[in-house]
Amino acid sequence: MASLPPANSGRITLKDGSELSYQGKVNFNTSGTDGLKNPRVVVDAYDVNSGELIYGEAGGASETFTLGGGMSKWVERGGGPAHCAATLFYFKVEGTNREWHGRGQQEYVKLDTVEFDATG
Fold first, then answer.
1. Residue of 84, 92, 52 whose CA lies nearest to 67
2. CA–CA separation, 9 vs 19, rounded Å?
3. Is residue 91 a part of any domain in this protein?
4. Structure confidence by residue, pLDDT tens digits, 58-101
5. SS3 75
6. How far is CA 110 from its chain centroid?
7. Which residues pair with 56 in a beta bridge?
8. What percent of the chain has pLDDT over 90?
9. Cα 30 from Cα 86, distance rounded (Å)
């Protein structure tokens, strides 16, 4: 069985053409996910004034994300600037070297994070 990537061994960057604004579409380049069937990305956005989490969404590593999504505090506020972070990760079965596929206790494994600012 192939070995899973260890924590902090991957890479995530913004793809060229990503729209770094409220309701903008963002995509990511990822690496270090060899052997994974389901690498994931979570995108979080924080209000630049209060630091409050105003948007969060997870999906597949190749997905396109719309900053703010369909409904979030960011949407409720009608936009505004935000500090964002996208984290590349996967789940494995706790205490094993097997990727999680719906059975057993999950263990979160962070591979990398990229931060960026989005305009309102």
1. 84
2. 27
3. yes
4. 999 999 999 999 999 999 999 999 999 999 999 999 989 899 98
5. helix
6. 10
7. 44
8. 90
9. 11
pTM for the predicted model, two decimal places: 0.94
Residue found by looking up tokens 């369909």 in the block: 70
Instruction: State how far the alpha carbon of 34 is from the alpha carbons of 9, 20, 88, 112, in Å.
Output: 11, 28, 13, 14
- Domain range spanning residue 68? 11-118
Say if residues 48 and 82 touch (Cβ distance below 8 Å).
Answer: yes
Q: How many domains does the chain have?
A: 1
Give me the CATH number covering residue 18. 2.60.40
Q: For 22, list phi and psi in degrees, rounded to 5.
A: -55, 130
CB 62 within 8 A of CB 99: no
Q: Report the percentage of the chain scoring pLDDT > 70.
A: 98
Q: What integer best gives the mean pLDDT of the chain?
A: 96
Neighbours of 108 (CB within 10 A): 14
